[in-house]
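Rotation project, supervised by the postdoc (A.L.). Task for the rotation student: set up a whole-complex structure prediction and record inputs and outputs verbatim in this book. Inputs entered:
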Amino acid sequence: MASIFQDTLQVRTSGRGFLEISEPAQHFVAGTPAQTGVLTVFIHHTSASLIICENADPQVLSDLEEWMQRAIPDGDPMFGHTAEGPDDMPAHIRSVLTATSLSLPVTHGRISAGTWQGLYLYEHRAAPHTRHVSLTLVGE
Amino acid sequence: MASIFQDTLQVRTSGRGFLEISEPAQHFVAGTPAQTGVLTVFIHHTSASLIICENADPQVLSDLEEWMQRAIPDGDPMFGHTAEGPDDMPAHIRSVLTATSLSLPVTHGRISAGTWQGLYLYEHRAAPHTRHVSLTLVGE
Amino acid sequence: MASIFQDTLQVRTSGRGFLEISEPAQHFVAGTPAQTGVLTVFIHHTSASLIICENADPQVLSDLEEWMQRAIPDGDPMFGHTAEGPDDMPAHIRSVLTATSLSLPVTHGRISAGTWQGLYLYEHRAAPHTRHVSLTLVGE
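Outputs recorded:
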């Protein structure tokens, strides 16, 4: 019979870029008695988001970031929401296009992701921020 | 021990744009005995979708809509699927790029989203539609 | 009281394109005693992803693919991650923009999706691959 386990991660970013959170998420799951289930990861912000991406070659993440900058240019004259800086409206659009919630399978007491799948917090603002991510495991 | 609670929202849109559904989702959760869990929101359509976005400055949503129109132009001659109108194929692509399902943490009997996180139904068709959204809470 | 049911699909793709997996997912759900719940579908890769899209007119999928090729061109000189071929970095970006996990409601013992909602594995690499998709049902 399934039970719920919940915790929150506090993550300090150093401005725009990626922070892998696979390890703290795995650690949370290992600290519960659940062997099988689903871990839901949720970020409590609209200018930072979650992605699952290749974690072997760091160039993949920088290419992704470069593509984002081209597709959603900072300071685009089209944007009317500019009070919080030229990177703020792009941050909201990037968040909508990536993920605010992700759900990962748990098998044999561990997150069962692919070998090269890293779970990342993707900070979209230029300045460092403290971000909150909640982890909810439904498992048995 | 976790139980399942399920309901459906029927939402009437007034054409392309955003409808915040945070309040009815919160109301559904409050009507169950669950204190902790995960709420999965699912939209039963392929030309309307779900997003979580800043709900403080309405300009954020109109900038997002403008970006979408530029990235996926209505009536783009590239599209072959045109029988349902120039806004239909863009609606399908917008849906794929945003979310059909979102999962939100429930803590202390409430959806635990960030202060500025609004849950929106994003209607992508020009004409008004009746949309169905289902809410499933796994909680205890 | 909710229980967890879990299985894995192995899918052989024939290169870039779409494979509908609604049927095997529905079959998995029907094989459990659960009547109500949430099915989480997760793809264990970063160069193939999941989408829910219209399954009536196949032109919708080919228009989507064409849009992707224009938005994220294969072999774009911007990309530094090129060792695995001109289609690899675009595959990672496409995966980030679409879904690695999707959660669908289960009602009356069946996945309760809209009439025209097909669940697809979206292969982004040019070459055929064997892909793993896990299905986790939290249901009662």
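Student's summary: Chain A touches chain C through 36 residues (CB under 8 Å).
Supervisor addendum: The mean pLDDT of chain A is 97.
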